[in-house]
Amino acid sequence: MPPGVPHFSFLDPYRIRVDDFTTPRDPSYESPALYLLSHTHSDHVAGLNAKSFGSRVICSADSKHMLLNYEAACDRIAFDNGGKAEKTKPYSHLKIDPMLVSDTREWVYRDLLRPLPLNTPTELELSADVTVTLTLIDANHCPGAVMFLVEGPLGNILHTGDLRAETCFLETLTRNPCLQKYIPPPVSFSYETLSDREKPLRTLDAIHLDTACLLVHHDILSKEEACEGLVKLMALFPPLTRFFVNCWTWGYEDILKAVGRAFNSKIHGDRYKYTIYMGTSDPSLRCLLTKDPSSTQFMLVKDGIVATE
């Protein structure tokens, strides 16, 4: 859910803002007590590249790694081809290692991205009067992508971010201990004799839902079906065919894994993609890539760039 959603992307009634880090030119706008980042696709990080941004942001560990190491395609090409002496990382100002400023003799340090582990309820103070419990839950979208479960005195809210709600993923949600208290059992029971505090089931007061494919009128393949169909087509080509797998954005990792398993092969990634994937928490991604293009017939392409190293 990118910028432009109602209420300035706030999780009303909490002063929590999700995936929008710009400052609206609206007199009714009030600064949030807390920012949340669901994932690192470009339409969800607007405003984070501003050097003036200085607020705390909650995200997953993978999102923090990917954002701090992000390089635009044109800058990557220039650096790798010797056209630039240094890498350009537009979000590096969000984390500054301790350094001594010579003029003032003061130490400067900042680390605005605070990663939280998944499925771990964490208490966060929004104000002197309001403390919420925040839980990050996998969103089945791309590396680092999460949903946010906010529980507190003003209500319980689930913000899905961008998610792929296929059947197998929804089944895992029904077994998630952090969500089970909101999911009624298949058989109805009567709790009329219990007080609200004693009842085992709780109610979500609001769900901020990704509806990107709500109006699609055709069936969408599951990830598993799409990957299976792709590798079957690839298997029809001659054995020594070189394949360029165009992963134009984060989120196609299941394709890479399917290709690696089907052909029992590693996939070549350039300096940038290798760095990003090796820093994620996914062990299958970390063991899948190679920096040696001569060792495999499968090449990872991103932003239309084919690695030459």
3D structure, described in words:
- It is globular, with a radius of gyration of 22 Å.
- It has 7 helices and 16 strands.
- Helix 4 packs across helix 5.
- The two termini are 36 Å apart.
- It is α/β, with parallel strands linked by helices.
- A 5-stranded mixed sheet has the order 7-8-9-10-11, with no helix packed on it.
- It has 2 domains: 6-84 and 113-208, 4-Layer Sandwich (Metallo-beta-lactamase, Chain A), CATH 3.60.15.10; 223-306, Rossmann fold, CATH 3.40.50.12650.
Quick rundown:
The protein is an alpha/beta fold and 309 residues long.
Mean pLDDT value: 90
* Cα separation of the termini: 36 Å
Q: Kindly report the spatial arrangement of strands forming the biggest sheet.
A: 7-8-9-10-11
Largest sheet: 5 strands, mixed
Helix-strand category? alpha/beta
Topology, number of strands: 16
Tally of separate helices: 7
- Helix-strand pattern, N to C? EEEHHEEEEEEEHEHEHEHHEEE
CATH topology-level name of the largest domain:
Metallo-beta-lactamase, Chain A
Integer count of domains: 2
CATH homologous superfamily of the largest domain? Ribonuclease Z/Hydroxyacylglutathione hydrolase-like
Helical coverage, percent range: 10-25%
Q: Uncertain runs with pLDDT below 50, 5 residues or more? A: none
What share of the residues does DSSP label as strand, in percent?
15-25%
CATH architecture of the largest domain: 4-Layer Sandwich
Radius of gyration: 22 Å
